Amino acid sequence: MSCLRLNLVLQGTRPWRKPFPVLAFHAHFSTSSTAEEGDLYSNLLSKCAKASNLRHGTAIHAKFIKGSVSTSLYLHNHILIMYVKCGELVNAHQLFDEMPHRNVVTWSAIIAGFIQRGFQNEALALFCHMFHDGMVKPNEFTLVSALHACSLHQDLALSYQVYGLIVRLGFELNIFLMNAFLTALIRHGKLVEALEVFEWSTNKDIVSWNAVIAGCLQHSYYNVPGLWLRMNREAVKPDGFTFATVLTGLAALSDLNLGLQVHAQLVKSGHADENCVGNSLVDMYMKNQRLADGFRAFQEMPQRDVSSWTQMAAGCLQCGEPGIALEVIADMRKTGVKPNRFTLATAFNACATLSSWEEGKKLHGLRIKLGTEIDVCVDNALLDMYAKCGSMDAAWTVFQLMNDRSIVSWTTMIMGCAQNGQARKALKIFDEMILEGIEPNYVTFVCLLYACSQGGFIDEGWKYFSSMSNDHGISPGEDHYACMVNLLGRGGHIKEAEELILAMPFKPGMLVWQTLLGACQLHGDIQTGKRAAEHAMNLDKKHPSSYVLLSNIFAGLNNWHGVGDLRELMETSDVKKIPGSSWIQDLR
Q1: CA distance 571 to 554
Q2: Distance between CA atoms of residues 181 and 208, nearest Å
Q3: What is the pLDDT of residues 260-286, one digit of tens each?
Q4: Engineering a disulfide at 517: which of 23, 141, 532, 545 sits with its beta carbon 3.0 to 4.6 angstroms away?
């Protein structure tokens, strides 16, 4: 292990703490017996470790080195623990190497210290050294640390090897070791194996339940409700972490009924005041489109941090209330809570939805003030906001000032240009992106082909469509075919568009047939329109757009009898036309 590496990593991380008197003990030390002296030094070293007081800890160590105090393995371990707790791994490891004798406490302390500072590879190397040395057998604490290191290591086989050693040593019934092994399996994505270990265990505690519920939330949240119900049947008392995890899982599933039951149990449990639990409860209601209940849960939280406010604003946006989302963020700032990058991204998305350029411009000023605290996701949201507000000059300025442009940044600019009458510029941006070595993705090609359809660039559209699979290994999806049908259809190539649909390598969906139907309306092609409408209606008889588009074709040709027949068919099929809506901004 490189001491230089550790010095570089740990430099500047030593916490300063208010000192406490050390010299007051020295007068007593001079007259104390060896046993009393050892107890006093061990107590003092424990206080240094607890307060992370490296200065006084090293002063005591210096007395040992000078021979002023007789040392023992017991005191050596206390010095080692002090260095570990103060984050001085270089000194800790040097002391460890120089110790003439070591016991299981020594090994456990140094291994745990390296893990706590993020050096799991070094910790595992020490554990292997201990095992092969054979002088000291690991105990439960050593093995918990080893499993923790394994959970952070990329090689899952190490976890199985350590667990095999646990079984050989007779510790397989130890609940702490079982929980550590569960965590290691879950962190490596082995949920099935973790659930098997969980089932075999005969002495599960709340940590065991929390581990598997959190694992299901991460890898298979559909299992969360069943685990929660089983936990209640077995009379296991949940804690705050359990409630937060379960509510997050139910939010992902939009399971309001069980969510209401969990909320009722939460009120009785006394964990409702915990911040993470309150945030999860709000999220559950907002994901179920229960805006009023979400606000009520939010207002009942005794403390609200930036995550609470941001989640509430994002929930309002998900519920189709971007104006309220901006009001929540304004209220947050009035209370003195500083917004973070997630808050700003949510605010920009709300402004984009409202096409509120003025509000977005104010928030842009806040983004500039936050400076380096902002990441590329916020700037992407800012780009999208300006593009949807029709201010492509502002979007272009932001884009040029970005130091780190992701594929989302490029794609947003391509779509913004396409939506704002700058289709040719969108194609130029794509070509520039390719020259800079940025690989396009599925969405990039959707936006690019949409730009071609907006500009009527049929040749370019075919070129980019062919390059998807030939040059970039992306198989065209229904969205890409819909863009090509729109491009061909708007250009009057109705027959070619229909042939493209029929040649699709998978069953065409309603989107492409409705796109063709729209092109037929534009050019008055009633025969192709009828075929397209028939295909679309066979896929979804209740979707009103197919009926409306065909009706418009009939109306454009003054075929009022056909219009009447379609309206009658809609009534008998109980198809309702979705009313249009518009945003009206109140400037008072």
Answers
A1: 18
A2: 10
A3: 999 999 999 989 889 999 999 999 999
A4: 532
